[in-house]
Design brief:
Blueprint (H helix, E strand, L loop, with lengths): L5 H48 L7 H12 L5 E6 L2 E5 L43 E2 L4 E8 L4 E9 L4 E8 L1 H51 L14 H64 L5 H32 L8 E4 H11 L1 H6 L3 E4 L5 E4 L1 H18 L5 E9 L2 E9 L15 H7 L9 H13 L3 E6 L2 E9 L1
Parallel strand pairs: 8-10
Antiparallel strand pairs: 1-2, 1-6, 3-4, 4-5, 5-6, 7-9, 10-11, 11-13, 12-13
Helix pairs in contact: 1-3, 3-4, 4-5, 5-10, 8-10
């Protein structure tokens, strides 16, 4: 596709708009100005007739004559007044009523005063046929005609004041036509001058407008090559500057995203390595119980067992190792389900104290088997959380406490309100966790095993399950070293 220069397009567009606008003004002036002038003149003439109709022509001649001249003042109107067919006032020689500067023959007469000795020629508007008059009201008619001497088009308004007085107002159309012609010539000259100025301004404006665009184009081209060292400064104070700022923000975000992608790739490599280690460790952990189970089973099947008591002892070993394997596999499957997002989280309102009491009753056998001294204070409190996940976290914390308790076997379950959440805490007596590995307990469970003393058969998957559940719920969790022991905690919404 052929590239089009924005500067040239903008220049042509501005000239086209200017030319179109000037042409529209010229057409509008030619088509509308004359009718507007006609309408304005007609309105002025109608108002003049109405004002002339209000004059009392029975008064002294000088009085009503002065009133007529006041109405005519400032208006380019010819006024003629007839009384019973005789002209008693005329303001123009063009109607054939005045013959020169001798005003003795042209002084206005009083109505019904009588005829002059020298009768002027008959006004030409009396020759206008009756059917060419247009009635504007009951007393005012209008017509257009050509003045016979100068062949000039005229507007003629006729107003009937009363039975005797008739008023004529005459206006030439020639000044109106001349005004329209002069206006058009002036408009054409101004339009040409304006187009020249527009061409100059458009050329400068198009270049100044496209300069920041070209700068941003160069900047974006460098960004496309992942060259983030360059910069682009646009200070136009308008949308182009805003666009440039957005591009710079986008460049910053892109650079950040690329760095994040690199970090994610490194993290992915570490996770792949961790998964391989997990498979290796799980295989190692499964190998030991499987070897024991196979050895005891071979002893029994081969008949090397000398008495019933020894056989029951071997069967107990097989059952114990099988339970360990089952627990390990269940935790692996549960963790896989949580991390893949297939776990359903359905929060509901329930009593925290009742849920903990119910859990402890359900795990009474486990508590007695591990000789745990559990204490719990029941205080009414409601939470909004998934009940199954709630018991699952408690089970992991209690199981973890049972493995790492010291000889006192003291476990305390408590909770407290913190803002809009409730924090459930499980304390057990025992050695503190080393500070250099405490932050890794939730991610790499085998490091957690190495950081604790006690049962070497612990697989550390319980804490990873707690982390996955809380991440799903969007709530906090953690562990703290305290006097004489350790506290594992998690939060639920009120």
């Amino acid at each position: 596709m052929k590239n089009k220069n924005i500067s040239k397009r903008l220049f042509i567009l501005m000239l086209t708009i200017t030319a179109t606008f000037s042409l529209m003004l010229l057409i509008a002036n030619s088509l509308l100005l004359k009718p507007l002038y006609y309408s304005s003149v007609k309105k002025t003439m109608i108002e003049a007739i109405e004002e002339l109709s209000d004059i009392n022509y029975e008064e002294d001649t000088s009085v009503w004559n002065e009133a007529v001249r006041a109405i005519q003042s400032g208006k380019y109107l010819d006024i003629t007044i007839e009384s019973s067919g005789d002209i008693i006032y005329s303001s123009s020689m063009d109607v054939g009523l005045k013959s020169g500067p001798d005003n003795r023959d042209n002084e206005p007469q009083q109505p019904n005063q009588g005829k002059r000795e020298r009768k002027p020629k008959e006004p030409f508007y009396n020759k206008m046929p009756e059917n060419e008059w247009q009635a504007l009201s009951e007393t005012i008619v209008f017509g257009t005609m050509i003045e016979p001497d100068h062949k000039t088009e005229l507007f003629v308004f006729k107003g009937q004041v009363n039975e005797n007085i008739t008023v004529y107002i005459i206006q030439s159309v020639a000044p109106i036509v001349q005004s329209v012609r002069q206006a058009n010539l002036l408009l054409i000259a101004v339009s040409l001058l304006f187009m020249i100025i527009t061409a100059f301004v458009a050329s400068r404006l198009s270049l100044s407008f496209t300069k920041p665009i070209r700068m941003m184009q160069t900047y974006v081209g460098q960004l496309s090559k992942l060259q983030f060292e360059s910069n682009c400064e646009v200070t136009t104070g308008d949308e182009l500057q805003n666009l440039n700022e957005d591009i710079k923000v986008l460049a910053t975000e892109l650079e950040y995203a690329l760095n994040e992608l690199k970090n994610k790739n490194l993290q992915l490599e570490r996770e792949i390595k961790a998964q391989r280690m997990l498979v290796s460790n799980v295989s190692h952990e499964l190998r030991t119980p499987l070897s024991l189970i196979k050895g005891y089973a071979d002893e029994i099947s081969a008949g090397f067992i000398s008495n019933r008591e020894q056989e029951q002892k071997y069967v107990g070993y097989i059952a114990e190792e099988s339970a360990k394997m089952k627990r390990l596999l269940n935790e692996i499957l549960e963790l896989s389900k949580l991390e893949s997002g297939r776990m359903t989280y359905e929060p509901q309102v329930f009593r925290i104290d009742e849920a903990i009491v119910e859990f402890l009753d359900k795990y009474e056998g486990f508590i007695e088997e591990n000789s745990l001294n559990i204490t719990f204070e029941t205080l009414p409190c409601e939470g909004f959380y998934d009940r199954i996940c709630f018991e699952q976290i408690l089970a992991n914390y209690i199981s973890n406490a049972a493995k790492y308790c010291d000889d006192r076997k003291v476990v305390k379950v408590s909770y407290r309100e913190i803002g809009n959440v409730i924090r459930i805490e499980v304390f057990n007596t025992g050695d503190n966790i080393s500070d250099d590995v405490i932050d890794y307990l939730w991610d790499d469970f085998y490091k957690a095993d190495k950081s604790r003393t006690g049962d070497n058969g612990s697989y550390g998957l319980g804490l990873s399950i707690v982390k996955a559940i809380q991440d799903k719920a969007g709530q906090a969790y953690g562990v703290e070293n305290v006097d004489e022991g350790i506290v594992f905690w998690f939060e639920v919404e009120k």
